[in-house]
Predict the 3D structure of the following.
Amino acid sequence: MIIQSIGLLIEFKDGRVKKANFGMATAARGENRHLIALVVDASAAEAKASLEAYGVARIINICTGKQGWDPAIQSAAVVAAIEQFEITNLIGLTSPAGRELLPRIAARLDAPLIMDCTEIDLDGHRVKTSQYSGKTIATIALTGRHFIYGIRANVVTPKKAPTEADIIEFAFEENRGTGYQVLETRSDGNGAQYLAESDIIISGGRGLKSGENFKMLFECAREMNASVGASRVAVDNGWVPYAMQVGQTGVKVNPKVYIAVGISGSVQHFAGMKTAKMIIAINSDANAAIMANCDYYAVGDLFEILPELKKQLDEHRQG
Amino acid sequence: MNTMNIYVCVKHVPDSAATITVEGKNGINENITFLLNPYDEHAVTEAAKIKAACADVEVVAVCLGKPAAENTLRSAMAMGANRSILIETERSHDSIFTSRALAAAIRADGQPWIIFTGKESIDNEGMQTQFRLAANLGLPVATNVVKVDVDNGSVRVESEREAGTIDVVRMTTPCVIGAGKGLNMPNYPTIPNIMKSRKKSVRKIGMAELAIEKPAAGMEIEELVPAVEQRAPKALTGSAADIAAQIVDILKNEAKVI
C-alpha cells in the first residue's frame, strides 16, 4: 500500500491557526493519506491540538531564523522541507500569504500549480477552478514530480477527525542572497479579517454614493462579524481602498452569505462572488442585474434599510 | 552608457464583458473582442513613466500569442512601449511554458533592467507567470505592486499583501515586478499615439527560433464548461424595518451565520 504524503501550508492569525486551514485539511484527507502540516516561523506547539483535531499526523516546524514576513526566504524553506520529507502534494490557501508563497514554491520546484481551486482530486491530480471571469469552470490536469494546489477558502466545510501528531523541527538557512528584502510592513492596524475567508460579506457599490456612507456597512458588519467589500465603482471613485474590491479585478470570495448593497451586479462583480452560498441584494432599482441572480432581493432605499438592519442585528446580538 | 531595457510582458485576453462560448472540449469561440490584459495596462503605463524620467531607457513589450495578439502589442506601444516582440504560436500554453518562452525571448533580445508583468491575467487567472519568469531568469520578484521607486542598482516597491497591509520591498536589479491595480491610472491610448504606434516595430519570432525545451511538468485544461447560474430570487417586501427583520431571520435561521 502506498501512503501519499500531503503537505498543508498552515497560516496563522494572531498566533492561532486560521479557521480556513481546517476546511483545507478536511479536503486533503482520504484513504492512505498522511497529512503533514508545514508551519513556518510560528508556534507549532500552539497549533498542535487544533491541527490534530482535523487529522494532521505530523507537524514540521520550519524555522528560517529570520524575524518577520519574507516570502522569498519562507518559500525557499518550504521547498527544502518538501524535498527533505518527500512531500509530493502541497495544498495552501489562496490567501494574501498563499498568493505570495505558493507561486514562489511552484516556480522553484518547476511544479504545476493551480490557484483558487474549488475542487481537488489528489489521486488523479485534477482540479476545478473558474476561468474567464467566472463564466466557465475548467478541469485542469497537472503533470510533474510535485503538485501544488491553492484552494479557495471555505469550499470544504471543516469536519473533525481526531488523530495524534508528532512535531519535527526543521531549521533552514538560506546562504544565497535572494535579492529581495522586506524593509518594512505597513498596516493600517484594523487587522480586518481577509475578505475571502469571511463567512459573511456585506458589500457596497454605486448606491452608497460616498466613502463616508460606507460607515453604515462597517457598522452592520461589526454586528454580525462580517467583512466589508466593495464594487469596482466604489474603489474607482476612491470611496474605499482597492483591496476591498470584490470582482474580476479584485478579490474572489466564497462566503456563506453575500449581501450586495447598492450594487447593480455587473459581470465583473459576479466574477468575484458568484460562488457565494447565498446572495442577498438590496437595491433601489428593481431591474438591476443582481435582482435576477440572487436568492433574496429587496427593492428599497438602502439609507433606510441599513440603519434598521444595524439596529435589529444589535438587538439580536444583545439577545 | 548602454541602453537599459524595460521589458513588459503582456497578454492578449478576451474583454471581461465579452460573452464566452465554450467550443469543443476545452476551447472558446475567439470571435469576440480581445484586448490588452487590464493589469498589463498598469505595467506598460509604469514602464513608460520610468522611461520618461531616465535617459537611455527603452521599453519593449513582449507577448506569447497567436498572430491576432499583434493588436495587443500595438495597444502597448500606443501606451508608451517603444517596440515589441511577438512570439508566435498557434495554441494556448500554460504558465510553465509561457514563462520559458518569455525568458528566452528577453535573453535573446538584450539586457533587462526591470521586467514588468500584470499580477495575473483575467482569462486563465493563474497568478504565477511573473514568479516562473523570475525563477527562469534567476531574478527577484514582487507581486501586486502598487508603487515603484527606481534607484541606482535597486528598486523599491510597495507590494499590497491584503487590505491595509503593504510590504515595502527592496529588490536588486534586474528584477520582475507584477503590477497591481493601485499602481497608476492607465495611460490609455490617444488617437495620435495610436497613429504613432502603427509605425513602431513588432518583431515576430517563431517558437523554433527560441529552441525551448519541452518542460517535464505541465497544466492542461481538459475540459471547459459554462458556469451555471441557478438562483431563484425571492422578494423581501414591506417597510425598511420589515425588510431588515426578514434579513436577520434569514441570517439566523436559514444561513445560520449569526
